[in-house]
Each structure stands twice: as structure tokens, then as C-alpha cells.
Amino acid sequence: MRIGMDEIVNAVCLNLAERHEVPPTSVEVELLYDEEQGFSAEVWVQGRSRILIEANLKEAIMRYMLTQYNERVYPSQITLDVEDEIWADIESA
């Protein structure tokens, strides 16, 4: 299964909204890729900026897959990739 950039952004928004007890619409996300640093995201919650690393993105995707698709996935099943945009390939168990 493949989820695109929009779904990854939704996953991060939902995950952080739940953690900070704010509405998902109050979370802003910008996905980033750097050849040296790998995948990350800059997020803003209630006006505060923070950087998420690849492990945080995978955690958000795992929770998203469970809540939206009723599928339990593990970090080892998630591969982030980029060409024109960032996406995640998720292996079946």
C-alpha cells in the first residue's frame, strides 16, 4: 500500500493534535527531505515550532494506519521515499 504526501501530513496532524489536545486544524506541517539528514517535518502547534525526525513520522503513520485503515503496521514495514513529492510505501504483514 502507498500513502501520499497529503495522507502523511494528515497522519502527523492527527497524531500531534491528539498528543497536545488541540484540534487537528490548529497543526501545520511541512514535510522535508535532505540527502544528509533524511526525512523530517517542521510542525507548528499553537504557534510553537518543532522538528520531527523520520522515527516520529513513522510513528504518526503507524497510528494513522490503525485508526483510518484498521491495520496494525510496524516501523520496519514503512519505507519513506521521495521523487517529486514524499510518499510512504507500507508492506503487508
UniProtKB/TrEMBL annotation:
Taxonomic superkingdom: Bacteria
Q: What is this protein called?
A: DUF2653 family protein
Q: Which organism is it from?
A: Cohnella faecalis
